[in-house]
Design brief:
7 strands; Alpha-Beta Plaits; three-stranded antiparallel sheet; 4 helices; alpha+beta; single chain; VC0802-like
Length: about 130
């Protein structure tokens, strides 16, 4: 199962390289990544299949994993006919109408959408029914 790891890094040259090299040297593939910087720090979300291996590699390189979150990875944007304007809006509206809150979202490799929600199981079922 895919996991999102949140890592805090200093906002300076080389930190992204350090993260990528630590994971690469451990054989852990980064399947998705989102980073936001501000006030001298960067919050980096990485999508990995091997959360334990990623955590060990990052911590071994002196980085701290601040959070590990179960996420759903939806292929809802991966098919050409689904990669259209308004598709995310429709997905988000369906989740909202079901009372499901989205707490994290980004696009990963192969045009997959990564979501952390208040109810990943129901969200998965709902999104699958939309395909």
């Amino acid at each position: 199962m895919a996991k999102d790891l949140l890592v805090s890094l200093d906002d300076m040259p080389g930190e992204g390289a350090r993260l990528g090299e630590a994971l690469g040297n451990a054989g852990v593939n980064i399947e998705g990544l989102c980073a936001v910087s501000g006030e001298g720090k960067s919050a980096v979300h990485i999508l990995v299949e091997d959360a334990a291996g990623a955590r060990a590699a990052l911590e071994g390189a002196g980085m701290t994993v601040d959070a590990e979150t179960d996420v759903l990875v939806s292929p809802a944007l991966s098919e050409p006919d689904l990669d259209t304007p308004g598709r995310f809006g429709a997905m988000a509206r369906a989740l909202a109408e079901a009372g499901i809150n989205i707490s994290l979202v980004y696009v990963a490799s192969r045009n997959r959408i990564v979501l952390a929600t208040s109810d990943n199981q129901r969200a998965t079922q709902l999104l699958q029914s939309m395909m």
